[in-house]
Every structure is written in structure tokens, then in C-alpha cells.
Q: What sequence folds into this?
């Protein structure tokens, strides 16, 4: 009988074994159970074995941590004796922000971060998000610029509706990875989501339950901003985000937090070099003399950058030449009266898309290499025909996509960057470009700050000499380096009878989907 009682006491004492190991927690064990453990050889033996297993586990974790740090140092010191600028240091920032792994010695990478104010600020921002290890790895892949090649931006067109609403579950992981690794597609998601947020604010003017808002961390939101699967080719087995997603989607407060994080993340990923270049060299005798150097630039370039910075600070870009401002106003006003429009876009890689617009009927069609898409705002539907098999899917438009398509109709799918003079940033400047061919039509150039506050955008438009409407537009981006990079060329004509063209090109009315 006594043996049976002892066994039942051992069973009851098992749940307190961990507490017994810690002296402070041991005081919380009920008195009778503590007395049993102290007098029971079996329980004391089990606790001793548990302590040994925990110690071994700690040793394994410590060894794994040392292995991780060794790998990080090896990556850092691959830049030994070489120049380190922001582009080289950026992929290492997420790992440096990881509080569980600390690099305690100077390295070529930490030297740059210490001496570059912009990289230091980016590091502190990432650290404030308290990201988990899979998120840190994902962000490093994004900053390294390793997007998935071979996936054209047009393949994200059909995914935009789902991306805006955080419906990542059924998305092709390769296309999903491209959508967030590609700067152009990432910006499209941000703008479409901004329209969705404006719609929510106009409709409700308030967020969800504030107590739930307070429980959602930045790390929770990060999985919505940069979903799993980036750079992996497979959707990770991550914890479910259903509760977070279902709260954030209708909550203006949390959706605004998502947009703010998206903006900061894309700003860091897209930021050019600050101009700080460092070099770390190992000296003789095992000492580590550290050298830092600025990039060699011509004085004229540095002076020009200083003047540009001063001009932005004083708002001098607002002093637009009157002739340029009047021409821009007339151009945008004339463009707003156009009913039929055909726009061909081409990116630097040679990928071509065609857009046919009937503004009066609120219909537009996108003809790409692998898909034809028709948006009909009056009917509230979207039709997609996949090429070459011809399968057709029809689905209803939600408010966010309708707002995006309506804005695209007004802007000619990017032919003009702004729809009226009031929407042009006050810091933009417009000027006429002199050409050697008087019959080529007037050319004007508009320059304004880039979307995320880093660098500049440029729109150079050639007008038709007969109609004064845009005939061709070039978009350029300066990411802060002072070098303009061509992003897209858009060519336009204004044919009559677009209604018949739309009917001829539109997907079949039969539906094989929703």
C-alpha cells in the first residue's frame, strides 16, 4: 500500500521537476510535494538526468550559435581589403539587427555601418521591428537583390487583387516572390493598397478593436509586408496569419502601419549609395589597422549635388519656369478630354504590353505575351484569357481594384504621371527640351522626388506637332546615385473605333472560373 502511494506521489511530482532545478522557482513548489522530492531517490535521479539533458542541449545550442557567428564573420571578411559601400553592406543589416547573434569585433561590414549614417539609421529601424530568424533571412535575400529571374512583371497582374488583401495562400510561390523582390511590382502593390486604404478611411473613418491593434507586433505585420517564400521558391511552413490578416484588412490603423513598414522597407531596398566607402585591412603582426576613405568624385559633381540639395531644402524646384508650367497644365487638360487611346509600353528588357482604352465606356484591355485582360468598370467585372490555351476566367471587381483601374484610365496607364496640375508635387520642375528637328514635336521634361523620398523620377514626353497630345513618353529613375536609369518607354496613338477593337480582342464571354 505504501509503495502505491509513493508511486502516485512521484507521478504528481513530475510537473515540478523543472521548478526544482531552479532555486527561486523551487520555493513555489507545494510543501508536501517538495518534501516528497527531497526524500525520493527515484525523483532525485530523474531530476539529475533532466539537468544533464538540459546542459547537453545548452551546449548544442551554444555550438550552433558559434557556428552561425563563424559563418557571419566569414561572409563579412570576404570584403577584407576591398571597398564596402551601402549596396555591399545592406544585405548584412538584418543579421546585425538580430539580437540573438552579436558580432563583437570590427569587421569590414560593421566598419561601414558605424561610419555611414544612413546605414546606421536603417539598422536601427530594422532592429526596432524585432524580427524572427526566418524573417531576418527573408529580408537579407530581398536586400541582396536576388529576385527570381524569368518571371515577367505582367504575371503579377492577375495577382494584384490578392496581394492588396494579403491573400497569399493560393499564390504561385515563384510569382509571389517576384512580386515583392521586383521594385516595380512592389511599388504597384503599395499604390493599390494606398487606394484601398483611402476607400476604407472614407467609408469607416476608424480602425478595428484598439486592444487587438495593440497586440499585433511589427513582426506580425512583417509577414504581411514581405510574405513567406521570398527567395525560397516554396511557401515556408510558417505559423498561420489568419487572425492577423483578418484584423488588419478592415482596420485603417493597422493597414496604415503595414503601409508605413512597406514604405520604409522599400526605401531601404531601393536606396542608392550614400557616398561613404570604407576599407578594412589586416596589418602586420596580427594588428588590425582600419582605413576609411571617401569615394573619389570630381569637384564639379560634388558641387552640383550640394546645389541640388540646397535647392530642395529651400524649395527652389517650386520656381518652375512659367512657360513650362502653363504647357504642362494645357497638356494635362487636353489629355483629360481624350476618349480613345492605344498605349504600347516597353521596358528595358524588351517586354511589351499594349493597352486599349475606351474612357467613355470605362473599359480597358491589356494585351500581353501570355494573357489578355479586360476590365469593365460599368459591369464591375474582369475577364482574363490565358494564352495560348484560351481558357477564360471572369470575376467581380472589388472597390480597391476598381479604384486602381479608374486611376489608370485617367492617366492612360502611365502615359502621363499626373492627371491634373494640382496633383503635381510642388517641388517638381518642368522645362522645355530643345531638339534639332523642328518637325519632331515639342519635348518637355518633368522631374520630381521619387515615391519613397530617395532619388528622383523623370518623365520626358514628346508631343504630337498637330494635336499637342503625348506621342511618346520616357520614364527614368535616379535612385540617389545621380545616374538616370531608363524604366519604360510608352508610345501612344488615338485611334477611332476602339469599341470594335475591344470587342475583337476581348476574352470570350463564357466563363470557366468564378
A:
Amino acid at each position: 500500500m505504501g509503495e502505491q502511494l509513493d508511486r502516485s506521489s512521484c507521478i504528481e511530482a513530475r510537473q515540478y521537476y523543472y521548478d526544482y532545478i531552479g532555486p527561486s522557482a523551487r520555493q513555489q513548489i507545494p510543501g508536501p510535494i517538495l518534501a516528497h522530492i527531497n526524500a525520493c531517490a527515484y525523483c532525485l535521479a530523474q531530476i539529475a538526468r533532466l539537468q544533464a539533458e538540459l546542459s547537453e542541449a545548452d551546449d548544442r545550442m551554444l555550438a550552433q550559435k558559434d557556428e552561425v557567428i563563424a559563418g557571419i564573420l566569414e561572409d563579412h571578411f570576404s570584403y577584407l581589403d576591398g571597398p564596402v559601400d551601402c549596396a555591399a553592406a545592406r544585405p548584412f543589416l538584418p543579421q546585425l539587427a538580430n539580437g540573438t547573434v552579436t558580432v563583437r569585433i570590427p569587421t569590414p561590414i560593421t566598419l561601414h555601418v558605424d561610419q555611414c549614417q544612413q546605414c546606421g539609421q536603417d539598422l536601427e529601424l530594422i532592429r526596432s521591428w524585432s524580427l524572427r530568424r526566418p524573417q531576418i533571412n527573408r529580408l537579407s535575400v530581398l536586400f541582396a537583390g536576388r529576385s527570381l529571374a524569368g518571371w515577367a512583371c505582367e504575371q503579377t497582374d492577375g495577382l494584384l487583387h490578392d496581394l492588396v488583401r494579403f491573400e497569399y495562400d493560393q499564390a504561385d510561390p515563384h510569382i509571389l516572390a517576384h512580386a515583392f523582390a521586383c521594385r516595380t511590382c512592389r511599388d504597384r502593390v503599395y499604390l493599390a493598397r494606398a487606394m484601398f486604404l483611402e476607400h476604407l478611411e472614407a467609408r469607416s473613418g476608424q480602425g478595428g478593436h484598439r486592444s487587438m491593434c495593440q497586440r499585433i507586433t511589427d513582426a506580425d505585420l512583417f509577414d504581411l509586408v514581405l510574405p513567406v517564400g521570398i527567395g525560397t521558391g516554396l511557401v515556408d511552413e510558417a505559423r498561420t496569419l489568419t487572425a492577423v490578416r483578418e484584423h488588419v484588412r478592415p482596420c485603417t490603423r493597422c493597414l496604415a502601419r503595414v503601409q508605413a513598414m512597406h514604405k520604409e522597407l522599400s526605401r531601404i531596398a531601393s536606396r542608392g549609395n550614400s557616398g561613404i566607402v570604407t576599407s578594412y585591412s589586416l596589418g602586420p603582426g596580427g594588428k588590425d589597422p582600419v582605413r576609411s576613405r571617401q569615394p573619389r568624385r570630381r569637384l564639379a559633381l560634388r558641387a552640383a549635388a550640394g546645389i541640388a540639395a540646397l535647392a530642395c531644402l529651400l524649395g527652389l524646384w517650386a520656381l518652375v519656369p512659367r512657360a513650362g508650367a502653363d504647357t504642362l497644365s494645357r497638356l494635362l487638360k487636353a489629355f483629360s478630354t481624350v476618349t480613345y487611346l492605344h498605349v504600347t509600353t516597353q521596358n528595358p528588357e524588351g517586354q511589351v504590353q499594349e493597352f486599349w482604352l475606351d474612357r467613355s465606356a470605362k473599359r480597358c484591355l491589356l494585351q500581353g505575351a501570355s494573357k489578355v485582360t479586360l476590365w469593365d468598370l460599368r459591369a464591375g467585372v474582369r475577364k482574363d484569357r490565358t494564352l495560348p490555351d484560351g481558357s477564360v476566367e471572369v470575376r467581380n471587381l472589388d472597390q480597391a481594384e476598381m479604384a486602381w483601374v479608374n486611376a489608370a484610365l485617367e492617366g492612360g496607364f502611365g502615359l502621363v504621371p499626373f492627371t491634373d496640375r494640382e496633383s503635381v508635387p510642388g517641388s517638381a520642375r518642368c522645362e522645355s527640351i530643345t531638339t534639332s528637328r523642328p518637325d519632331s514635336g515639342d519635348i518637355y521634361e518633368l522631374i520630381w522626388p521619387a515615391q519613397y523620398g530617395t532619388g528622383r523620377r523623370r518623365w520626358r514626353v514628346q508631343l504630337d506637332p498637330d494635336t499637342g497630345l503625348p506621342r511618346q513618353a520616357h520614364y527614368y529613375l535616379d535612385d540617389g546615385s545621380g545616374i538616370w536609369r531608363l524604366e519604360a518607354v510608352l508610345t501612344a496613338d488615338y485611334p477611332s473605333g476602339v469599341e470594335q477593337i475591344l470587342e475583337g480582342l476581348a476574352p470570350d464571354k463564357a466563363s470557366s472560373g468564378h
About this structure: The chain has a mean pLDDT of 75. Residues 41-76 form the longest helix (36 residues).
